[in-house]
Amino acid sequence: MVDNGDRIATSLRKGVVEFCVLALLDGGRSYGVDIARRLTAAGLIAGEGTLYPLLSRLRAAGHVTTEWIESEAGRPRRYYELTASGRAQLAEFRSAWAALRASVEGFLEEET
Amino acid sequence: MTRGDRTPGDMTTWPDPIDRYLADVGRALDPLPPAQRADVLAGIEAHLSDALAEGASPAAVIADLGTPEAIAAQALEDAAPPRPRYLGPRRIAQIVAFAFALFVSIGLATVIPVYTTVTTSQSECVLTTSPDGSSGSGTCTPAPAETVESTATLADANGPFVVAVVLIPIFLTLLPLVALGRVHLPVSIVGTVLLAAGCAIAGFTIGLFYVPALLASAVALFLPTAAKMRA
User: For chain A, what is the domain count?
Assistant: First the structure.
């Protein structure tokens, strides 16, 4: 049985991971392993593999594009890059997130 | 599609455990639409080759990726239940095109007089009676020519064969409405081109009547679909 704290964290992460991916790519294109490591390190995804359905969805929605680019290591890597629509999506999330955070914190402060 | 769809060069030969893992992931992703399944697999294959190239052991790479079931669960959760198709601008324009074609075809086949035949009858002699009462003076004055205008619809004039012809534009404007998904755009383009060709060929007879349908159908190609608007 999953711990209750874990369950809360999992359901909270669910809606925001994709925007964290967009935000991450806003800093410049990146490849799967790199994105997966950063999300795992931040505790945003459990298994690295779950990143790929998410990236596939972002790609299908036109928010990211993929391209095989020769890496410094001399072998091609599949890079993900933010598109204009991805950037717009991220901007909308930023304002929605700021509003949500403010109101949630408002409630939490009242309670304590 | 971009180059990102395919792994460049030949397929890597994977170590056995990786091969098995990929096969398992592939199976777990079977319920997905083929394009999405291929894209998810391409991402995972790229991940595998990068991680292995960095020197990680196959077992560790697989453990970090997680179980095929977890990946599939995420993918299936993302594959949102089919959203209600609402009318995007393109579909609206294509419905308008279909409506134009339908009404014009019905009109042409049954109501609108396309042919106007003007028959001028040259009347025969009218015997004039001379003022003195004696008849048959022999003068023949032509009566004013009588003009009879009769009209005919296409169906009247050409018979049932014409029904087949006017069905073509209906069919061409209906196709984009029923061809959904991947084939939608190609079908829409082909339908519009054929309709334009038909208009051009029949330009002097009935082609002109279909220009509104053609315009709507052409404009539709440049309008976004509902799916585009949602994204």
Answer: 1
By the CB < 8 Å criterion, does A54 face chain B?
Answer: yes
Half-sphere exposure of A24 (CA within 13 A, CB side): 22
**Which amino acid does the sequence have at B170?**
I
Angle at B191 between CA B186 and CA B196, to 5 degrees: 130
Chain A residues in contact with B36 (beta carbon < 8 A) = 56-57, 60
ipTM for the predicted complex: 0.90
**What does pTM read for this prediction?**
0.54
Q: Scanning every residue of chain B, which has its alpha carbon at the shortest distance from the alpha carbon of A35? A: B47
Instruction: Closest CB to A56: pick one of B40, B64, B68.
Output: B40
> Residue B92 and residue B177: Cα distance in Å, rounded?
10
Contacts of residue B94, defined as CB under 8 A and 6 or more positions apart, other chains included, come to: B173, B176, B177, B188, B216, B217, B220
Q: Which of B14-18, B76-80, B203-207 has the highest mean pLDDT?
A: B14-18
- Where do the structural domains in chain B lie, given as residue ranges? 3-79, 89-116+152-230
Q: Alpha helices of A3-83 — where are they, by DSSP H?
A: 4-14, 17-26, 32-41, 51-60
Buried b (16+ CB within 10 A) or exposed e, B203-222: eeebbebbebbbbbbbbbbe
Among candidate residues A86, A88, A24, A76, the one with its CA nearest the CA of residue B4: A76
CATH, residue A28: 1.10.10.10
Residue B31: both structure tokens together: 């319920």
Angstrom distances, CA of residue B166 to CA of A20, B107, B201:
56, 10, 14
State the residue range of the domain holding A55: 4-109
Say yes or no for a CB contact (<8 Å) between B36 and A56: yes
